[in-house]
């Protein structure tokens, strides 16, 4: 026969046929919603560079958590906005800090929702770097006890998962040792293992008030040019006790997500970061693309690359419509 017998279009003809052979699934439970929690009451302070997102007081964050749980979203990850900052990020590990307060309130209000706590000092230090300083250099080893202390504090407050994002060498091992010693040997660590020094974090830094006051984070976050190094970072974190590893950002690093999944076969998270979110929102507001469809396509692509879990600001808006994706 001169005409091909195989016609791949046959399974593209109707929504039912497309759904029948669809390779990649995306469900609300695959998503984790980042929330920014601040002191006060009845506060919902919009974030200008992230349409639809806001800094939330604990009572408002609890309402948000209840709604996300109702929608079937897999969890929330908390970032704290402190009342005051200092050189060592004290509120980042204070037992009465904003994140522990939010964790306790959310645990009571939404017991079935998985609560993640980001572990880093950048939101809490007056210099905006992710660890304590020695002069103008981040002191890796002196930062480790404080990060471990923060992880234990969050576990005590009800966090199901702690997620260190600081990119200090050895922090997973230090946190695992501290959690085990405090009686939290069952608390998983999701390590930001391959976190790149990215231009896509800008809106987050407005939301969290965490921009460095001098210099940048290229001395500890990864060079965007490197891929093999990401595999070394992941291997080291797994050796130290990480239970899941994360790639951040997601879209510019889908190749890294795929390589990590294929090499290690462990649970992989990918962070669909603030800049990725805000680009779609800005384009949709201008009518340049269909925002809902673009978000679905983006999240599906991240899943297709190999991510088991996606941290995304689209979670609340996308969860109710996942059943009708790509009809």
Q: What report would you give on this structure?
A:
With 327 residues, the protein is α/β, with parallel strands linked by helices. It has a single domain (24-324), classed as Aldolase class I (TIM Barrel), CATH 3.20.20.70. 37% of the residues lie in helices and 17% in strands. The protein has 11 helices and 12 strands. The protein has helices at residues 15-20, 58-70, 98-109, 140-157, 171-181, 202-208, 228-240, 254-264, 274-285, 291-305, 315-318, and strands at 31-38, 44-46, 54-57, 75-81, 114-119, 133-134, 137-138, 161-164, 190-195, 244-248, 268-272, 309-312. Strands 1, 2, 3, 4, 5, 8, 9, 10, 11 and 12 form a 10-stranded mixed β-sheet that branches. A two-stranded antiparallel ribbon has the order 6-7. Helix 3 runs parallel beside helix 4. The radius of gyration is 20 Å and the shape is globular. It starts with 14 loop residues before the first helix and ends in a 9-residue tail after the last helix.
Number of domain modules? 1
- Please name the fourth-level CATH homologous superfamily: Aldolase class I
What structural class should be given to the helix and strand makeup? alpha/beta
CATH topology title: TIM Barrel
Q: Any idea what the CATH architecture is?
A: Alpha-Beta Barrel
Taking the sheet with the most strands, its summary is:
10 strands, mixed
Radius of gyration: 20 Å
The helix tally amounts to 11
Number of strands: 12
Low-confidence stretches: none
Q: N- to C-terminal separation?
A: 34 Å
Shape: globular
Instruction: Give the CATH level 1 class.
Output: Alpha Beta
Helix content: 25-40%
Query: What is the N-to-C order of secondary-structure elements (H for helix, E for strand)?
Result: HEEEHEHEEEHEHEHHEHEHHEH
Strand content: 15-25%
**Mean pLDDT rating:** 95
